[in-house]
């Protein structure tokens, strides 16, 4: 069957857009093909700095003929309804429709619409220019005199269609001032001549000969493997950096790996500063020696095969890195010369948010809040206040001004150098964390106090000015802050009730549900342990874990079935009687041994569960509930709840209410599925 080859050749596409663009091209074309009736077998998209490419295999030569039946209005319907039907069906007159009968609905019009298939090339000629015109680049530009937008100037379009053993045809269309053809170009420097291509197989091999590796993942593998082998030969290892690897693979079409060096004297700088400098300025990988220490070497990925073996390229990178590390050393020494707290007045000139004041005002709030939190997390209030006061001071330093991603970390380095206690220095770095689901959580009390203060101030502040996340929009990373609070509390086992307004508490509940579900908890179990006023994150987490353990056992499953039966009976009878049953069981009205046994068991378990809950021992509480399985089973086997004697019936309904209320001490079992 025929295949489609499409290549959009342009000036350099920014690396951060490439992978998404390849996927957007694949989805856009294949969705349009299916909508046009051209069902395909497979599709693969590729991207390099200078081209987006797509191959779609197993396409038919033309779309199939179709026949559609469109039901219309009743015979005798008003003329506007008939006119609408004719327009929708594409009929010139109602006489072109057929009349069919329905025993219940009477006679109505039906249009039988036949649509002949169309040639695939003809369909593609209409599909492809629309794909280009509507392409969803995050940023695009215009050039020349046209109105066409693309991420960078588009230089050539290749579009061929044909079967394996046939000469393919060019899919004819124009975009901007370009006309589709079957000509592409190789590597900008190593093989810049035009290349005529027929289909994907010869296209890919021709590009390989022209020093272009089409697949971005293969370029990544080449860079990774060659870098590791080059490092290994020197007794070194490459510091893994997946983000940098993705970026570098998007900067080259023919990766060539080399190694450079820098003055070992720069190793006196914090290693994070060296890595950030080399990464940000030259897109190079750093290395470690056999002892795990940062080595005075780096890996360069060039986009050419140098005739001198890379001597000039390496020397150029070494020269730039030397200058950048010299700048970093200048910033570092200058920052060390001034105590951190000397930077605090500068925070008065930095606006945190127009409605929430300056960074200095935020620091004042953090100091107060950290002191309030400290006793609850076993931190020293004065140490927490000191750490909170210095938490944002490194924002005024030269190093953080150059590398904002080092904020907090540089605060720790400067605090240590200036003699601050270790827990305060650690808190300056850790109060920002966790920044993501795999990031570290602060564990020292001072760090915990400041980290919680930082995130709670952020959340309560933006809630107060009604700047809440909406849909996918969360410019102030409030979801991340809430998840950070949740992780700090739960992973440190903290008893830390959240004292926030109901709306913000509900937001925490939503984030906690996401967190627990991501950890594998069933959504219904999470709902069962969260109520509107639940403000203890640790308690909710422990209840969900304990409930999951209970319901994974046979006793738990059977007890849940008994609870559901009891709750259903209660709901039905309370609705019928127009009243609720409060659970007041009268011993003298218990007639059968099974109901007496259940009554005594429920009373004992109620007391035991209450004691366990008071100690936050939810596993113990769930274990007590599990002992009710046998008396509940026996009760429903032997006892008729709706006894003829109204007093006996009411007492048995109260017993079921007492059972329900006892189980609700730890979770709302009505929200559990099953």
The percent range for helix content is: 40-55%
- The portion of residues forming beta strands comes to 5-15%
Shape: flat
Low-confidence stretches: none
Structural notes for this entry:
The longest helix is centred in the middle third of the chain and has 26 residues, at 311-336. Helix 13 runs antiparallel to helix 14 and helix 20 packs across helix 24 (646-663). This protein has 24 helices and 18 strands. It is α+β, with helices and mostly antiparallel strands and 674 residues long. The protein has a five-stranded antiparallel sheet, covered by helices on one side. A four-stranded antiparallel sheet has the order 13-15-16-14, sandwiched between helices. The model has no long low-confidence stretch (mean pLDDT 94).
Write the layout of secondary structure elements.
Elements: E1 3-10, H1 15-35, E2 42-48, E3 51-57, E4 66-74, H2 79-89, E5 98-102, E6 106-115, H3 120-133, E7 154-162, E8 169-170, E9 174-175, E10 178-179, E11 183-185, E12 194-196, H4 200-209, H5 216-233, E13 237-238, H6 242-249, E14 256-261, H7 271-282, E15 285-288, E16 294-302, H8 311-336, H9 344-347, E17 351-353, E18 357-358, H10 359-373, H11 381-390, H12 398-402, H13 409-417, H14 422-430, H15 445-464, H16 478-491, H17 502-518, H18 523-529, H19 537-551, H20 554-577, H21 593-614, H22 618-626, H23 629-638, H24 646-663
Antiparallel strand pairs: 1-3, 1-7, 2-3, 4-6, 5-6, 7-8, 9-10, 11-12, 13-15, 14-16, 15-16, 17-18
EC number: 6.1.1.14
Subcellular location: Cytoplasm
Family: Belongs to the class-II aminoacyl-tRNA synthetase family.
């Amino acid at each position: 069957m025929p295949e489609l080859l499409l290549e959009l050749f342009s000036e350099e596409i920014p690396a951060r857009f490439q992978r998404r663009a390849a996927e957007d091209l694949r989805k856009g074309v294949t969705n349009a093909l299916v909508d046009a009736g051209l069902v395909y077998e497979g599709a693969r998209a590729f991207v390099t700095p200078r081209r987006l490419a797509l191959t779609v295999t197993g396409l038919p030569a033309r779309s199939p003929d179709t026949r559609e039946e469109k039901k219309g209005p009743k015979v005798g319907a008003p003329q506007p309804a008939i006119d609408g039907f004719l327009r929708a069906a594409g009929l010139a007159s109602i006489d072109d429709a057929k009349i069919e009968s329905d025993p219940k609905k009477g006679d109505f019009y039906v249009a039988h619409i036949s649509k002949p298939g169309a040639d695939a090339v003809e369909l593609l000629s209409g599909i492809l220019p629309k794909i280009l015109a509507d392409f969803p680049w995050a940023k695009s530009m215009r050039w020349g005199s046209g109105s066409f937008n693309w991420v960078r100037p588009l230089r050539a379009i290749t579009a061929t269609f044909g079967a394996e053993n046939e000469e393919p045809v060019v899919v004819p269309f124009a975009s901007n001032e370009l006309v589709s053809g079957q000509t592409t170009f190789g590597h900008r420097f190593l093989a810049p001549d035009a290349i005529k291509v027929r289909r994907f197989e010869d296209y890919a091999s021709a590009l390989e000969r022209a020093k272009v590796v089409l697949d971005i993942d293969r370029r990544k593998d080449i860079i990774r493997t060659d870098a590791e082998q080059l490092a290994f030969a020197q007794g070194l290892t490459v510091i893994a950096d997946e983000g940098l690897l993705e970026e570098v693979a998007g900067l080259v079409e023919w990766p060539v790996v080399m190694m450079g060096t820098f003055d070992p004297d720069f190793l006196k700088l914090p290693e994070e500063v060296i890595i950030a400098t080399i990464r940000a300025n030259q897109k190079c990988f750093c290395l470690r020696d056999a002892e795990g220490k940062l080595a005075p070497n780096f890996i360069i990925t060039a986009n050419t095969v140098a005739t001198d073996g890379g001597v000039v390229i390496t020397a150029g990178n070494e020269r730039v890195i030397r200058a950048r590390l010299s700048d970093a050393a200048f910033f570092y020494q200058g920052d060390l010369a001034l105590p951190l707290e000397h930077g605090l007045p500068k925070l008065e000139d930095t606006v945190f948010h127009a409605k929430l004041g300056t960074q200095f005002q935020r620091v004042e709030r953090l100091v107060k809040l950290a002191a309030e939190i400290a006793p609850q997390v076993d931190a020293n209030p004065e140490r927490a206040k000191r750490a909170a006061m210095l938490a944002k001071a490194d924002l005024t330093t030269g190093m953080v001004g150059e590398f904002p991603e080092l904020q907090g970390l540089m605060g720790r380095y400067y605090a240590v150098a200036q003699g601050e206690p270790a827990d305060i220095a650690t808190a300056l770095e850790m109060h920002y964390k966790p920044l993501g689901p795999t990031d570290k959580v602060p564990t020292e009390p001072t760090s915990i106090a400041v980290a919680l203060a930082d995130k709670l101030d952020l959340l309560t502040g933006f809630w107060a000015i009604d700047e809440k996340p909406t849909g996918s929009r969360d410019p102030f990373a409030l979801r991340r802050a809430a998840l950070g609070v949740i992780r700090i509390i739960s992973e440190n086992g903290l008893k830390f009730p959240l004292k926030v307004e109901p709306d913000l508490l509900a937001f925490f509940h939503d984030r906690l549900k996401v967190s627990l579900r991501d950890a594998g908890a069933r959504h219904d179990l999470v709902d069962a342990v969260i109520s509107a006023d639940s403000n203890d994150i640790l308690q909710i987490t422990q209840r969900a874990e304990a409930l999951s353990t209970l319901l994974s056992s046979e006793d738990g499953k059977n007890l849940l079935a008994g609870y559901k039966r009891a709750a259903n009976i209660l709901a039905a009878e309370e609705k019928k009687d127009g009243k609720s049953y409060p659970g007041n069981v009268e011993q003298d009205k218990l007639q059968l041994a099974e109901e007496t046994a259940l009554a005594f068991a429920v009373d004992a378990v109620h007391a035991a569960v209450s004691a366990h809950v008071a100690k936050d021992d939810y596993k113990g509480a769930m274990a007590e509930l599990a002992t009710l399985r046998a008396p509940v089973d026996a009760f429903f086997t032997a006892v008729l709840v709706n006894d003829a004697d109204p007093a006996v019936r009411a007492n048995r309904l109260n017993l079921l209410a007492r059972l329900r209320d006892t189980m609700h001490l730890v979770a709302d079992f009505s929200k559990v599925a099953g």
